[in-house]
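Data deposition worksheet. Section B asks for the primary sequence of the deposited chain exactly as it was used as input, without tags or linkers unless they were present during the calculation. Section C holds the resulting structure in C-alpha cell form. Section D is free text for depositor observations; keep each observation to a single sentence. Incomplete worksheets are returned to the depositor.
Section A, Depositor: J.P.
Section B:
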Amino acid sequence: MRALSVSSIVAAVLATGSLLVSASPIPGELGDALFITATDPIVFAYSPGSVNAGSVDWDSLFSEQYSTSVYSAPPPPSTITAVEQTATSAVKLTPTPTPTPTPTPTPTPTPTPTPTPTSTPSTTSVAPPPPPTSVAPAPETTAEAQQTTSPAYGASSALWGLDWSPYNDDGSCPDLASVTSDLKTVAGVTGNIRLYSTDCSQLRNAVQAIKNSNLGLSIYGGIWLSSGDARFESDLTEFISVAKTYGTSLIKGVSVGNEESSKGMTEATLIGYINTVRTRLAAAGLGSIPVYTTEQDAAFTKAMAAASDVVQINVYSIFDSSFTSIDASVASVIQRANNVKTNIAGGKPVRFGESGWSSAGSTGPSPLTLVNQIAYAQKFKCAAQSAGYNYFFFEAKNANWKQGAVASEQNFGIFTDKYTPKFDFSLLDSC
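Section C:
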C-alpha cells in the first residue's frame, strides 16, 4: 500500500447522489463532516500546522486520568483525492506515495477509550483475590510465545485484527443470528477479532457463528476485571465452559483485564488475577491457551510482562497535545511499541491490543475526520506490518452503545453501528 499524508483534499462529485467527505473539524460532537451535492464541484484544502508538544488535562475529556505522549515531526507532502461514491456509499481515496519518517520520540502514557460493557453488569463487587507472594515468569512454551513476530496476512484480509464488541445501540445483547450476520461482515476485512468479555454470551455466540458459517476468524478472548470479583468469576467460568464445549481451535488467547492500571488496580493485584486465570485454565485442561493482560504502553511493567505470555499494549496518538501529521502520529506509536519491546517485554512477543483514529469529535489538536481515519488506518497497517507487529485495530463498528460518551469515543469504528463500511476497504489491501 502506498503511504498517505493529508495536506490537501480535492473532492469532485459526479452526477449521482451525494458524497460525505470529512474536512477540518466542525465544532460540536456531530461535526467533522460536509455534505457535497452532486451538481457542484467543490475544492477545499486542509493544511495541518506544526505545534510544539505539550500536555492536555484528560480529566476534562474522560472519566479516567491519562497522560500524553510528546512527538513532533515535519509532515511530508502527499495528496488524497476523493472520487465518486461506491455501491456501499463508502469514500474511495486514491493515495500517492509518501516517504516514511524515522523519528525517535520519547513516549509517555496515552489514553484509550475503554470498552465498558453495560448489558450485564455485576451487582456484587468484592475485593480481588490476594496476589501471590512471588511472581513466577509466565511459561514460554505456548503457541503464542513461540510464534514469529512477522504478521501473516491473509490474501483477503485488509487488517490483521479488529477489536469487536457485540452490543446493540441501546446496550442490550444481540442474538446469535445478529452476531452471525455481523461477523460475516467483519470476516471480509480481517482474520482475527479481539473480545473484551464473555458477557451477553458474546464468546459463545462468536464461536458458534464462526463454526456454523465457516467464517475463518480466530478469537482472542477477554475477561473483564473492572466490575468486581463476581463479574470476573462469571467471565472466567463462561470462558472455560465455551473452550471445553467447542474446543480451543478458534480461541488463540485471553486478556485478563484491559488498562486496569489506569483504573487504580495495583500491579500485584493484576498479576494475581493473571495467575489465577492461568491456574484455572490449566486445571480445566486448557493450559495451552496463552494468558496475558492489556495495558497502555507506558503503564506496562516488567513484572506484568513476566507474568504474561504476550505483551499486549494499547497505543494512541490522537490524545496528544500536539499534531504534526498522520505520518508523524503513526511513527510515534510504532516507536513507542519499539520502546516496550526493547525495555519491557523481556523477549516476549509484543502486540497492539488497540490503536486507531476516530472519525468525529475532538480530543485536542488532532483532526478527527474520516479522511484522517482512512489515512491512519492505511499508514498504521503498513508500518506495523513492516515493523513485525500483529495488531488489533480499534475498532469494528461505531460504539453507539456507549451512551452519553463523547462523539470521539463513539466513532472509532471502520463500520457504522449498522455495519455499513465508512470507506472503501480495498484501500487497506496492500502496502
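Section D:
Residues 179 and 206 are 7 Å apart (CA to CA).
The first strand starts at residue 9 and ends at 11.
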